[in-house]
Amino acid sequence: MGKLGEFEIAFDKNKVVYSPGESISGTVTVNINQPLQCKAIKVNCNGFCGITSKVNDTAWTVEEQYFNNSVSVADKGTLKLGEHTFPFKFLIPDTAPTSFEGNYGRIIYRVRAFIDTPRFSKDYSTEKQFYLLRLLNLNEVPDIWGVSSSAITQQFTYMLVKTGTVVLNAHTDMKGYTPDQIIQLKVNIHNQSGKTTGNIAASLVQRVTYETKKPTHDVKTIAEVEGGAVKANKEVEWKEQIIIPPLPQSSLSGCELIKIEYYIKVSLKSPDVMLTLPIQIGNVSLDKKKRPTKKSSPPSSTDGTSASALPADTTASPSPTQPRSQAPKPAPRPAPRSRTSTHSSPSAPPAEHLHVPESGTPTNEDLGSKRQSQLVSPNAFSYAPGLFFPQNQSPNPVAAAAPSAPEFSGSARPLPLYPTVPGASSMPPDYGTSAYPQDAPPSYDESCNT
């Protein structure tokens, strides 16, 4: 460098990554081989976004400035032989966006130092970049809870005369992820044609939009997984996992020139069917404790009927202003009804039509899915309808605290005529409380005399 042996910028504690609103400090070191006359030594800190029309070009067509601050650390004079150190400090605005480097644009932050020399002398400059990270908390993103789902029905023609239909339905387990988290993807393919489809594929795609007079869209596939084909007239459920690699966050808050989007693309190669599942990638993962809770539904009894289906005598006592009704007579057992009956259906199915397995819990015959899993990842997991848990599993504390319900042993048994209510006698309601007047019972002496 001629008269300069060293001209460098160093940040305190060798720190490279900063946050908005934080201060950046360091020193400028100048090592002089010969005395050097200067008008001033200035240090500048700036941040900006530049957009170009060519890949990896620095001739910016559009720029956006975030901050540009300068400070003079030395006045006019002569720098003597040896090493000189000048400290500096700047405050980073809290509105500055996260650093970014793309094919058609960058968000750059840097500290530059200048030595202004007299006229006709050589000026000296140096610079050092630093990175800014504005954390994206996924818990603060609107509409982030739930799953990302989509479905599409595609008709196509094969063999020139035949027409087929493919129904594609897919969803992810969440809408927001952070690097190193795993996307649980589930896809349902229903091939309603006589032709075998091509292989199913899913990919994590990054789409960066650079805003210029004619916006530039840079689409890049980050990760991809592939499954098998679906045979004719078959329905298949495919499960896969995609690991999120280190990626820029979805939102560059404070930047108006660059927009980053992520989505999962699910597609079939033949016929041409494709759908997308938008997702968010941030720095702070979703906290399940902050998830909005839904209002709980009213508790129901263990036999599938609600509490309001019980007889009125067991749920409410008669009003004191109304006359007491006489004890009800046992109702006759209803006769089986035909399927064409126009009467209103009961709140619970008759016992003879209730299918109860040996475990004692009503089940649906169609619960066991007839879909076949095809090329499932070894790490994929799901609940299997035929899975049995150990018998020594601890009982449900909620069920243990509930009143005893009718037990089933292989076949359903009808409920008793008067269900047992805690605190009530085992006799029928209003037994011995007739409205007619009654005399007091005779005493012991009167009974003996009689």
Question: What would you say this structure looks like, in words?
Answer:
This protein is mainly beta. Helix content is 2%, strand content 38%. It contains two helices and 21 strands. It has helices at 397-401, 444-449, and strands at 4-11, 17-18, 23-32, 36-38, 40-51, 62-74, 77-79, 82-91, 100-101, 105-116, 124-132, 149-158, 162-172, 176-177, 182-191, 200-210, 216-226, 235-243, 258-268, 273-281, 372-373. Strands 2, 5, 6, 9, 10 and 11 form a six-stranded mixed beta sheet that branches. A hairpin with a 3-residue loop joins strand 9 and strand 10. It comes from Menidia menidia (Atlantic silverside). Residues 287-450 are annotated as: Disordered. Residues 295-306, 337-346, 390-406 have a biased composition (Low complexity). Belongs to the arrestin family.
How would you sum up the major sheet? Answer: 6 strands, mixed
Approximate shape: flat
The stretches of 5 or more residues where confidence is low (pLDDT under 50) are 296-438
Q: Count all strands and give the number.
A: 21
Order of helices and strands: EEEEEEEEEEEEEEEEEEEEEHH
Mean pLDDT rating: 75
Q: Helical amount among residues, as a percent range?
A: under 10%
Oligomer kind: single chain
- Strand content bin: 35-45%
What is Rg?
Answer: 39 Å
CATH class of the domain at 139-287: Mainly Beta
Terminal Cα separation, in Å?
Answer: 138 Å
CATH topology (fold) name of the domain at 139-287: Immunoglobulin-like
In the CATH hierarchy, the architecture of the domain at 139-287 is Sandwich
Number of helices: 2
Structural class: mainly beta
